[in-house]
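BUG: 3D viewer hangs when loading the predicted structure for this chain

Environment: internal workstation, default settings.
Expected: structure renders.
Actual: progress bar stalls at 90%.

Input used:
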Amino acid sequence: MNPNYSPSLLLDRFFVQNQIPEYVGAAQNRFAWSICLVLYIFYLLVLDPQMTPIKILICALCEIIKKEKIQTFNLTQKLITVILIIMIFLGLYNFSVHVENRSSAMAMMPMMLMSPEDRMKMNEAKIQALQEAEFEKDDEDEEETYVRKCGMKSCTSDACSGGK
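Structure tokens produced before the viewer hung:
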């Protein structure tokens, strides 16, 4: 497309139409663009928090450099670290299981740590308990009705039983 009719150049020209052009030499222009390029690379490599393939490559190249003695990690240190991590997870598990649930997150923790079979058994036990509670409630309601009609619990009168 001809630069005279390019939409972006037309928009640029609209904003600078009243300015006097300032012509710059190629060397100065190249220097300004190189500053911009260096700043952009600095931003990408140092300031940008995203991990990119370039950053990974640079980190890999830095890892090739020989490590100092303080940076080394021997077998004993690795073993101590693994044991510490296991103890932390066991402590968190015991804490979540044996401490009173005071928040919704702590109430959900035992459920999250259960196997699917244990969750199914627990749900079945809850359903069974609810059914038994409902059954006992029905029995209590019938007994209360029976007591209210005749006034005695152990009444065997046909009038009381027929009035149910």
